Amino acid sequence: MNISAEVDRFLTAKEQFLGAMRRELRDEVPVSAITEQVASAFGRDQAMQYLAAVSVHDDALKALQENGLGAATRVHVTGIRAPGEATLTLERDTEGS
Questions:
Q1: Using one digit for the tens of pLDDT, what is the confidence trace for 2-24?
Q2: Residue 92 pLDDT more than 70?
Q3: What percent of the chain has pLDDT over 90?
Q4: What dihedral angle (degrees, nearest 10) is formed by the CA atoms of 74, 80, 83, 86?
Q5: CA-CA distances (angstroms) from residue 79 to 66, 92, 97?
Q6: Distance of CA 25 to the CA centre of its chain
Q7: Which residues of 17-27 are buried (b: 16+ CB within 10 A; e: fewer)?
Q8: Which residues contact 87 (CB under 8 A, 6 or more apart)?
Q9: How many CA atoms lie within 13 A of 72 on its CB side?
Q10: Across the strands, what pairs with 77?
Q11: Which of 8, 30, 11, 12 is nearest to 21 (CA)?
Q12: Closest of 61, 59, 33, 60 to residue 47, by C-alpha
């Protein structure tokens, strides 16, 4: 058994799983329905915190883009491990000013 290959497969599958959760949320599937479906893989509370962070991420990114700040910012979600957070990074182009 090649543990590296197994870890790579696991991480790929995990990201695909999280991607499916994000798509469901963005397709307006109720959070309760998503968390019920994923409860065997992740705890209900953990899934709810992750989906809440994804919602904050999406709202922040939309607001920044609508105000012309999308190119100067980076918004990301830390992942499903606690604490689930959406972070915002502001950047300044010092060469262009």
A1: 899 999 999 999 899 999 999 99
A2: no
A3: 40
A4: 20
A5: 25, 26, 34
A6: 11
A7: ebeebbebbee
A8: 75, 76, 77, 78
A9: 13
A10: 86
A11: 30
A12: 33
Is pTM beyond 0.85? Reply is: no
Can you say how many angstroms the Cα of residue 97 is from the centroid of all Cα atoms in its chain? 32
Please report the pLDDT score of residue 96 as a whole number: 58
In this structure, what is the dihedral angle of CA atoms 30, 31, 36, 38, given to the nearest 10 degrees? 120
Torsion over CA: 35, 40, 41, 44 (sign): positive
Per-residue tokens: 68:
């012309």
Label the pairing between strands 86-90 and 73-77.
antiparallel
For residues 22 and 80, give the distance between their C-alpha atoms in angstroms, rounded to a whole number.
11
Tokens of 67: 């105000």
3-state secondary structure 31-95: HHHHHHHHCCCCCHHHHHHHHHHHHHHHHHHHHHHHCCCHHHEEEEECCCCCCCCEEEEECCCCC
